[in-house]
Each structure stands twice: as structure tokens, then as C-alpha cells.
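Why this split exists: single-chain examples teach little about how molecules sit against one another. For that reason, every record in the complexes split bundles all components of an assembly together and asks for one structure covering all of them. Below is a record exactly as it appears in the raw files.
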Amino acid sequence: MKVQCELCPKLCLIEPGQSGECRVRINIDGVLRTVVYGYPCSIHIDPIEKKPLFHFLPGSSILSVATVGCNLHCKNCQNWEISQANPEDGNIPAYNCPPERLVTETNKYQCPSIAYTYTDPIVYYEYTYDSAKLAHEAGIRNVLVTAGYINEEPWKKLLQHVDAANIDLKAITEEFYRDVCSATLKPVQNALILAKASEILLEVTNLVIPTLNDEPGQLRELARWIKMNLGADTPLHFSGFYPRYQMRNLPATSLRTLEKARKIAMGEGLNYVYIGNVASKEGQNTYCPGCKGLLIERSGYTILRNRLRFGRCPDCNKEIYGVWR
Amino acid sequence: MTRRKFVRKLIGAGSMIVAGASLFAKKASPRKFVRAIRFKGYPGPVKPMENILKQGKWSG
């Protein structure tokens, strides 16, 4: 008997013995099973700035976890070795780390939060959900790093146990999502709006790919959409592309392009616009939208200086969007 | 049965089918999301825990 997975907008109708597009949700004897529950392929302690999250517990360490699999198939994926892997192939070994152990490890290393990241926590939904719930009970906060390609009902349920998220808005056109990611834009926009409405700390990442989504008009439209639907205080990270996976024919994004994107987005009224994956002095720092003073100075993933006082600018006392402690 | 009666009966029966179908359509709620069930074990190789203090090589 076929089963339908209703987790993401792909709504895969799965034949017995087969998996959905994500490769990790399988029809076994007419029952939908997740084969990666409790079996992450990657666990590391990262600086939270690497997610990237710049407005959530800056300078803290975050236990970061991922299983194999992804419901998108972006041609430019930087983590394709794990995101596009099939657990049955045997190329990517996993740890036996059920939610209880994940929480124990997080406490052991005194991390204040867990990031469900690297691939996409949507496809290991049940593991993410149960771990996040358990983590909350233990006083640990939860962060999602995701493409946000999920249906409304499971998304709302998961958001109840989430404190912060960085969600990709890969482009502002359906064509890009269809041609590059084998997905669609609308559900991502819906997930972003729902995340904002749930009052979690939300940051957005846009990977700027030369010739595909770096046209000034598109970048302007993307910034306008964020401002109108998520608010001017939503941090936006313009991230540099590197030729990877099935997109090795394009050059890496130049710093100049990223700076131009940042200027456009700030010109549209976004208060916090950052540059990532490429060294940039100004593009890594947080400035006060009120008095324009420097608030947080960064170099790579390191905080050089944090001038915030109880979440406010020390010069003009403006409240700065974020979770600071 | 006259032709008129037959046509009336036919229209009546058709109306009942349409009314029933629309009632059913109203009552049908969107399917609820159902969690996938945990698979026992892992289909690939399992490795012992390593040093997790090392920063991840993956993006994100």
C-alpha cells in the first residue's frame, strides 16, 4: 500500500519499500517510517555566529546536529555530501544519539542551545521535535537552520519548541526555486511569515549566486518583501556562493556584489543587513539603526566587542532586536 | 409511470446525490499531519561518538 508523507509541500506518495524525495522517510509495509531518528551523521559545537545568528546569544557555543537527507536538491548545495546522501548507501556513518543523549551532551559541554542544522531539520522532523521538546524541559534553547520548506500544520507544531531560526530565502522568484532547488517559493514565504508570527527570533539568509539571483531588481524585491512581511528589524544575511556540487560552472560571489546587495537592502529600509562567507569589515558588524553607532564588532565568527547594554544601544538607548541573554 | 413522473423522480434522485456530496465535501476536513514512526536501528553504518568539540566542517 502506498503512503503519503504530508510533512512538506512535495506530498510524496511513496511506494512500499521506497523513500520520499528526502531519502529518509520510507514506506515500510504501508507505514511511514523515519530511518534517521536518533542517528545524526554530524554533531559539533560551533560558534552561534556560524549558523549564522547574529542577534541570538552572541558569542555563545551551540551544539549543532544533523542527519543525512534533504527535501530540496539545490544544485549549489554546500553540504551536498550529507544532504543528498542516502543512509542505505553506507557512505555516511551515523552516531547513535537519541534525544535524551543529545540533551545530555549539550549539558555536558554547557551549551545554552542546540542547532538543528547542516542539512535540513524538516526531514528529520520527529527527531528535531522530540529533541527540542526535551531540551526545553532541560532549560536548553532550540535553533533551526532551515530552508523552511514545510507544510503549515507540522511547522506550527514544531515552532512551539523553537526559540530562534535562520531561514533561507533563496530567491524571490518561483523560477529560481523550481530550476535550482526543485521546490517552490510560496511555502517558504508562508513558513517565514508563520515563524515571525510565532515570535521566535528570526534571521534570514540569501545566498547570492552570480547571474542567477544577483540582479539588483530581484535583491530589491527580496528586501522589500522581508520588510513588508517580516519587519524592518529582521536581520538579513547575504551569503557568498562558492562553486559546489552541480554548479561548478559559476564563479564565486565577489565582495563587491555582496556589498551592493547590502546597500540595496539597507536602502529599502532593512535595519540589520550582513555579509557572510566572504571577509567584510562593515558587513559583519551590527550598527544601531537609530544613531548608526557600532554595537557589535565581529571578525569571522569571533566577537571582538559587544557594546550592547541590556539589549539597548549605549549611545541612544534604542532597543535592538534580539535575544541577548 | 408517466414520463413526467419518471423525470421528476430522476431529478429528485439527482438532487439528493448532489446534496449528499456537497454535505460530505463540507464535512471533510484537511488530512491531519501524521508523524513518521521511528525505524528500529539505522540502515547504514553506525560509528562511536567522536570529539564533538571540533567545529563542524559543514556550512550552517
